[in-house]
Amino acid sequence: MSHALVVDDDPVLRNIVVKLLERSGWTVSEAGDGREGLRSLFARRPDVIVLDVNMPEMDGWQALERIRDVSEVPVLMLTARDEEMEKVRGLQGGADDYVTKPFGQQELLARCERLAKRAAAEDGGEGLEPFGDERVTVDPAQRTVTADGEPLALTPVEYRLVSTFARNPGQVLSRDQLLELVWGDSMGSTGAQVKVHVGRLRGKLADAGLGEPIQTVRGFGYRYDAPS
Q1: Using one digit for the tens of pLDDT, what is the confidence trace for 156-189?
Q2: Which residue has the higher pLDDT, 38 or 119?
Q3: Which end of the chain is more exposed for a tag (fewer CB within 10 A), N or C?
Q4: 124 or 67, which is more confident?
Q5: Which residues contact 190 (CB under 8 A, 6 or more apart)?
Q6: pLDDT band at 68 (very low <50, low <70, confident <90, very high)
């Protein structure tokens, strides 16, 4: 049984989300602001966090930053503004997904279930042998990536991106393929997620002295060439 933490200062909306998840068999904890949400994170260890952006005391952005300091738990952001930069900010901050208010209840449920399923698969113990190339090594058991032996500071999404690219060197992967392989969803998400995270990952690989191993193949997607 999956466990969700719902963090929202609006008691009516929070109750809607809580009841929706409970009816689908989830165990649910709830919090009215970011600070309370962090306390629940440590006490309850949820499988998924549904986190509202606009809250008093500690807003969703601040809470997300603190969550990512200590945990890789999947986070789905709730935002009232359907603006690209709002979504980009969430993705850059380490959010795994986002839903714009007002939202369809079944869409929200499906996204939560997808995040929980993906997290469970990552913890399932399959394929734990390190892999990579001469300069980049992915260690699934430790969930780490090293460049020339030095660890890279990656978000959970960036880690999954590197893993996907390193398992498919020289292969062109479309945005839909990456959404499916990294996010587990090629239908309900947009290419903006891929573009944002690939851009940030490129910067970190370049900073590590690896050049530009991720190439854009115009009209098709991205290709990872093992750095020399």
Answers
A1: 888 889 999 998 999 999 988 888 778 766 445 5
A2: 38
A3: N
A4: 67
A5: none
A6: confident
In 3D space, the residue among 176, 147, 171, 145 whose CA is nearest the CA of residue 224 turns out to be: 171
Please give the domain boundaries of the chain with CATH numbers for all domains.
3-122 (3.40.50.2300), 131-224 (1.10.10.10)
User: Binning pLDDT at 50, 70 and 90, where does residue 80 land?
Assistant: confident
Report the distance separating Cα 20 and Cα 18, nearest Å. 5
Q: What SS3 class is residue 211? A: coil
pTM over 0.85, yes/no: no
* Separation of alpha carbons 198 and 222, rounded Å: 9
CA-nearest of 118, 212, 123, 209 to 157 is: 118
Pairing of strands 3-7, 144-147: unpaired
Query: What is the distance between the terminal CA atoms of the chain, rounded to a whole angstrom?
Result: 46
Q: CA angle, corner 176, sides to 106 and 67, nearest 5?
A: 60
User: Alpha-carbon distance 32 to 54, whole Å?
Assistant: 11
CB atoms under 10 Å from CB of 8, counted, come to: 25
> What does each C-alpha distance from 66 to 35, 37, 109, 143, 183 come to in angstroms?
10, 11, 25, 20, 22
CB 226 within 8 A of CB 133: yes
Mean pLDDT over 126-148 rounds to 86
- Beta 221-224 vs 172-173: how paired, if at all? antiparallel
